[in-house]
Specification:
Layout lengths: L3 H15 L4 E6 L9 H6 L6 E7 L2 E6 L3 E6 L5 E5 L10 E7 L2 E6 L5 E6 H8 L13 H6 L8 H5 L10 H11 L12 H20 L40 E5 L2 E5 L8
Antiparallel strand pairs: 1-6, 2-3, 3-4, 4-8, 5-7, 6-7, 9-10
Helix pairs in contact: 1-7, 6-7
């Protein structure tokens, strides 16, 4: 599932393609991927201009000049693809296509995800329960630690809780824990002051590095895109079961915690 670095990569690249561009048409091939009927969806989008693209946690918000918003959540398996010409179309099932004069934005794999047409008020309500962004200007170490103050369970479970901090999921929770030298299955009340400092620093470092490399998405956003997916070969522990730790050579372990996969190095990460 796309996390903060993937959605931030999409935001940056899409802003270059569609910010200031007018929507000339829409096609919906799966009605369950949107929240209104296709006619209403078209009426609320076609002819409007995309003012800017906002990233909020695991969501993208397309701000339109008619006051509406398009709220995107890719969930598991969702992808985006920008095609400049008709022949430049992904060989994948497209649930929604939004056309512009310069090309088409294809929304792929939205069988679990969605693209909803909302008002500004509806969008704010939909996102109200999300925690702050990892790079919110107010997110200093004190606020970071305070977000976990009432949590009594395991570290990874809290890290992927979108009401605590928005945008962190399975992959980067494990990557952050490794960078901080902490087992992801550690109980939160047992973390020391030093470990909280390391974890806060790891969040900033890991997410920034992953976004700079384009995240781990499997498909380029557009033809010639060499950024998207660049973090794939740089994961430290995630999805590397049995492979040697990049720091010490110990085989990476995979376990399950609250129905989630957990990857860690049993040598580099403290059990507590």
């Amino acid at each position: 599932m796309p996390e903060w670095p993937e959605m931030e990569t999409y935001r940056r690249l899409l802003s270059e393609k569609i910010a200031g561009a007018r929507i000339t048409g829409v096609e919906v091939t799966r009605s369950k991927s949107i929240n209104v009927d296709e006619q209403q969806f078209a009426a609320g989008t076609v002819g409007s201009t995309v003012l800017f693209v906002e990233q909020r946690g695991k969501h993208l918000v397309f701000h339109l000049d008619n006051g509406n918003r398009l709220l995107l959540h890719l969930m598991l398996g969702g992808l985006l693809y920008w095609g400049a010409h008709e022949e430049d179309k992904p060989d994948r099932s497209v649930q929604v296509a939004v056309h512009f004069a310069a090309g088409t934005l294809h929304f792929i794999g939205l069988r679990l995800g969605y693209l909803h047409l909302l008002t500004a008020k509806e969008t704010n309500k939909k996102l109200a329960e999300l925690g702050p962004e990892p790079f919110d200007k107010r997110m200093d170490e004190q606020l970071f630690r305070a977000r976990f103050a009432k949590k009594k369970g395991k570290l990874k479970t809290a890290l992927v809780d979108q009401s605590v901090i928005a945008g962190i999921g399975n992959c980067y929770a494990d990557e952050m824990a490794f960078k901080a030298g902490i087992r992801p299955d550690r109980a939160i009340p047992g973390l020391t002051d030093e470990e909280w400092t390391k974890l806060y620093s790891a969040m900033k470092e890991v997410l920034y590095h992953a976004a700079r490399l384009g995240g781990y998405m499997e498909m380029p956003l557009f033809k010639g895109d060499t950024l998207t997916g660049g973090y794939n070969e740089n994961c430290l522990v995630y999805d590397r079961e049995g492979e040697p730790c990049r720091e010490c050579g110990t085989p990476i372990v995979k376990e399950e915690l609250s129905s989630r996969k957990v990857f860690y190095c049993p040598n580099c990460q403290q059990e507590g």
